Automatic annotation (TrEMBL):
<dbReference type="InterPro" id="IPR011051">
    <property type="entry name" value="RmlC_Cupin_sf"/>
</dbReference>
<dbReference type="Pfam" id="PF16867">
    <property type="entry name" value="DMSP_lyase"/>
</dbReference>
<dbReference type="InterPro" id="IPR014710">
    <property type="entry name" value="RmlC-like_jellyroll"/>
</dbReference>
<protein>
    <submittedName>
        <fullName>Putative transcriptional regulator protein</fullName>
    </submittedName>
</protein>
<dbReference type="InterPro" id="IPR031723">
    <property type="entry name" value="DMSP_lyase"/>
</dbReference>
<dbReference type="GO" id="GO:0047869">
    <property type="term" value="F:dimethylpropiothetin dethiomethylase activity"/>
</dbReference>
Amino acid sequence: MRNRALQEFLDAARIAYSARARDPNSVSLLEQVFATLESPAPQSQSDSGRLPVCKYLTDIANPSVSDEPDLRQVMTTFFSIEPTLRWRRRQGDCSGASEGFAENHANAMIVGPGGLEPREGVWLGVSLLGPNVQYPNHRHPPQETYLVMNTGDFRQGRNEWVHVAKGETFYNPHNIPHAMRSNDLPLLVFWVLKE
Ligand SMILES: [Fe+2]
């Protein structure tokens, strides 16, 4: 059986993602991911903990930040599981990152390797950037869809930055180089990946 708080978060994420995805590739990815997640995998008992950048979660947790019901439900259920997450810094290449990146970002896996529900093939996690932080260019074999909980800029390859508003999604095909950056506010973004 899956932990109830985790199930409620996944239900909320499914509703918000499904309602908001526009790219047909995103729609297909999300259908496959959430269909897979209908079958729980064993939960992990691993330790939890925040990093200093997580101080920004206090602002993000303000209900006024999420004035749309589906987003508010994502945030409410996220903050129920957040104390059980292990926030980590990115491992590996950080080329293209802004100065101070290491201290001003954190990632947490919710479902996937090292997450609350460790499993292969399907990942769902979250990234937090402090204000005016650029996440490094990176790429990975799985395709990915972000759900942006406030606003940020996203880029693929050498393309122009794309401004993505709160509640919008952004799709990255398999292996495409991509980056993101926050503006004057912290950025919280969920990501779903599938190989
Ligand atoms: Fe990515």
